[in-house]
Amino acid sequence: MLPTAELAVPTAEDLELVELAREVIDANTDAGPDEDGAHTMGAAVRDADGRMFAGVNLFHFTGGPCAELVALGAARAQGGREITTIVAVGNHGRGVVGPCGRDRQVLFDYYPGIRVLLPTAEGVRVATIETLMPFAASWTMEGGTQQFDEERFR
Questions:
Q1: pLDDT 10s digits, 59-83
Q2: CA-CA-CA-CA torsion sign (126, 130, 131, 132)
Q3: 34 contact partners, CB below 8 Å, separation of at least 6
Q4: Which residue of the set 13, 23, 35, 68 is catalytic?
Q5: Sorting pLDDT into bands at 50, 70 and 90, what band is 153?
Q6: DSSP codes joined into one string, 45-99
Q7: Is residue 126 scored above 70 in pLDDT?
Q8: C-alpha 116, offset from chain centre
Q9: pLDDT one-digit tens code per residue, 3-20
Q10: How far apart are CA 120 and CA 112, in angstroms?
């Protein structure tokens, strides 16, 4: 777990994003408490214009999309281009859940500086994706994996 000194307290807008993600998964989960299902996580993103977009996961043994990726796709499909903040929550009141490694890499590559809401012992906190990916190498469609760029981590 990251030291909380590196994490910010969420704003009212951040908590609004958490609520949207919770509402979306609660309305769309296909699993009862303590049951497995294809739709058990919800996510919400906010763009630079303040618009919010949401999505739910689609579990599949081949690695179906996480809720964060679905929310990013929904934002793009509806004109959201500059995504600034993201959160995921579990169904049945499980609360905020941090992004998996694949999602972290996608966020790092496509949305530098994005704010990510995370669970901590002190409650929900906010970190930039760079904080979650120290010493990461970025990837681009044009050039593949890039060399480490220490300027991103200052």
A1: 998 888 999 999 999 999 999 999 9
A2: positive
A3: none
A4: 68
A5: low
A6: EEETTS-EEEEE----TTTPPPHHHHHHHHHHHTT--SEEEEEEEETTTTEEE--
A7: yes
A8: 6
A9: 455 799 999 999 999 999
A10: 22
What pLDDT score does 75 carry?
A: 98
Q: How far apart are CA 24 and CA 26, in angstroms?
A: 6
150 is an active site residue: no
* Cβ atoms within 10 Å of 148's Cβ, excluding its own: 11
Q: How far apart are CA 24 and CA 136, in angstroms?
A: 32
Neighbours of 33 (CB within 10 A): 9
Among the residues of the chain, which ranges form H helices? Answer: 12-28, 67-77, 101-110, 129-132
Which pair of structure tokens corresponds to residue 78? 């509806």
Single-letter residue type at 53: F
d(CA 33, CA 30): 10
**Residues comprising the chain, all counted:** 154
Is residue 49 within 8 A of residue 13, CB to CB? The reply is no
Output helix, strand, coil percentages for the chain, rounded to the nearest 5.
30, 25, 40
Tell me how far apart the alpha carbons of residues 150 and 131 are, in angstroms, rounded to a whole number. Answer: 13
Q: Is 137 left (phi over 0), alpha (psi -120 to 50) or beta?
A: beta
